[in-house]
Amino acid sequence: MEFIMKRILIVDDEVNIGLLLSKFLTRNGFEVNTALSGASAMELLSKETYHLVLCDFRLEDTDGREILKKIKTLYPGTGVIIITGYSDIKLAVELIKMGAYDYITKPLYPDEILNTINKAFETQVALSTPRTNINPDFNQSERSNKTGDYPEQYVIGESTASKELLKQIELISPTNYSVILTGESGTGKESIAHAIHLKSNRRDKPFIAMDCGSLTKELAGSEFFGHEKGSFTGALYTKIGHFELANGGTLFLDEVGNLSYEIQAALLRTVQERKVKRIGGNKEIDLDVRLIVATNENLQEAIQKGRFREDLYHRFNEFNILLPPLRNREGDIMIFSQNFLKFTNIELNKNVEGFSDEVIECLMTYNWPGNVRELKNVIRRATLLSESSKIQLKSIPLEISTFAKVTAIETAVDSIHLRDHKRGLKDAALEAEYETILRVLKEVNFNKTKAAQLLNIDRKTLYNKMKAINLE
């Protein structure tokens, strides 16, 4: 089995640019090929799997628009980034609305290129299995559903909580209501937002996702509203903001509670007036954007503490969906696990068929503090480590495989605390020993050799004590 690298195809009829980009990206860990024309690019795409294409807008035999159409038709999961001159920015924005991930303006700056490419991979626009256009974070199976077909990548859970969530998506999607998605980290808020977009009348328009949690106060205005070239120090090119990119479609703002109060005020004006003006610009641009925002905190509490504007909250809160944590969706755990296994098999070119009974018991028992995201990561890791037709216990992280035993021991220790005060020294000593062994094992991620060293006992003694407390 060979791990699949992130593969990029550079399409530019200027040999020197292609060569420089290829060397730079190769040094940064990507596998890169170059093409000097649209025709040769399509030939390479027909023979090899590429996760991302960097394409100059102006080529001798075609242009970025035609290349994008062909790639999205033949290889819909492959991300496309357009390289453009300053005068082509409007065309680049048009291409983004047609499905391109982003654009980069000339002259090319290494940091900008690398940042844009990394964002493409991080947001899963360019995935490790491009020809299947996979985004398995949202919770669905390949089955069709009676309310209409979602794209293949989505999985509908069978738990009561999932069915209620589906009802809310079906209800709100056809409207233009702004939506607040509230839920713990990892519950799939972006995927739910994307599902709402795909079920709406805006499905053929852009879906633009923006992570507000990573924005600094200095960058937020430029990311939201864009800026004109030369409008401030470091503004080396004109930038189209996320509102403008999402015009006609849906703008998803993740972790909106992290925005500074100043940015909230500027955001309120744009949301109220449905107009945007780039930083340093004079022209106001009319907006037709549906807003979906997500948060893992209670925004009403943030309002009371003075961290979030109440007027902005009410602009967003035309409809509210609470996403249930995975621990409250037991009926979905194995459905999601099978789905993640399927797509990881494709990614890693493996053929793992399922899970052993012991693994299934562990997956169903664990409390999943990281929710669907944690489950996905666990399945991907276990698939990579698996050496048989089914995922075995040794491929599962120790904190998951030992969770049930640790919980039982902690419960037993707690029960000792609740006993009357007449317990003897032996009970107290045993309680302290349980707690110490458990604490040290957790600290070293259940590495028994390290635990024995820290406890100043030999491994055999540790094994015997673990056996005595049913923690083998």
From TrEMBL:
One of the Pfam families matching this protein, by short name: HTH_8
Sigma-54 factor interaction domain span: 155-384
Alphabetized Gene3D superfamilies for the sequence: 1.10.8.60, 3.40.50.2300, Homeodomain-like, P-loop containing nucleotide triphosphate hydrolases
PTM annotation (4-aspartylphosphate): residues: D56
Statement: the UniProt record of this protein carries the keyword Transcription regulation: yes
Ranges for domain Response regulatory: 7-121
Record's keyword terms, sorted: ATP-binding, DNA-binding, Nucleotide-binding, Phosphoprotein, Transcription, Transcription regulation
Species the sequence originates in: Arcticibacter svalbardensis MN12-7
Gene Ontology molecular function: ATP binding; sequence-specific DNA binding
GO process terms (BP): phosphorelay signal transduction system; regulation of DNA-templated transcription
Protein name in UniProt: RteB, two-component system response regulator
